[in-house]
Amino acid sequence: MSTIFEKLLSGEFPCAKVYEDDLVFAFMDAGQVNDGHVIVASKKPYETILDIDEETTQRLFLVAKRIAHVVQDVFKAEGITLLQANKDAGWQSVPHIHVHVLPRYKNDGVELVWPRKEPGIERLLELAKLIKVPSI
Question: Which burial class, exposed, middle or buried, applies to 16 when counting CB atoms under 10 A from its CB (0-12, 13-18, 19+)?
Fold first, then answer.
């Protein structure tokens, strides 16, 4: 079963592309949060950040950064939000890796809220010991 992004890329569904190369493509989100809301997606149908190869990861975020600069300039954004969600519990709505580039403005009505937990430094130190990140 192909995702909506695969259908956009193949031309089965129309889309307003703003960028395309051998690994990623970017297009205007049909559900614009603010004018200039762009989605950057991999061409290969990787589902999440946990599945994607390193070269595509680098390209995805480099293109998102470049688009963020252009969107900020063109739409005079007061800020930019990048959103990359994974799996249902992580708010992923399409099972195909993508990054939202959202131009933001003070009082634009866009909210991203979650309950803050403040466990204290001792617990944070315990949690940090569990995370062993290999060097790049």
Answer: exposed
| Residues carrying an active site annotation | 98
pLDDT in tens, 1-20: 699 999 999 999 999 999 99
Decide: 11 and 20 in contact? Cβ < 8 Å.
no
Would you give the end-to-end CA distance of the chain in angstroms? 35
The answer to pTM > 0.70 is yes
- What digits encode the pLDDT tens for the residues 94-115? 999 999 999 999 999 998 888 8
In the structure, what pLDDT confidence band is assigned to residue 136 with cuts at 50, 70 and 90? confident
Would you say how long the chain is, in residues?
Answer: 136
Domain boundaries, the chain: 4-107
According to CATH, the superfamily of the domain at 4-107 is: HIT-like (3.30.428.10)
Question: Which amino acid, one-letter code, is at 120?
Answer: G
Q: Phi and psi of 34, rounded to 5°?
A: -140, 155
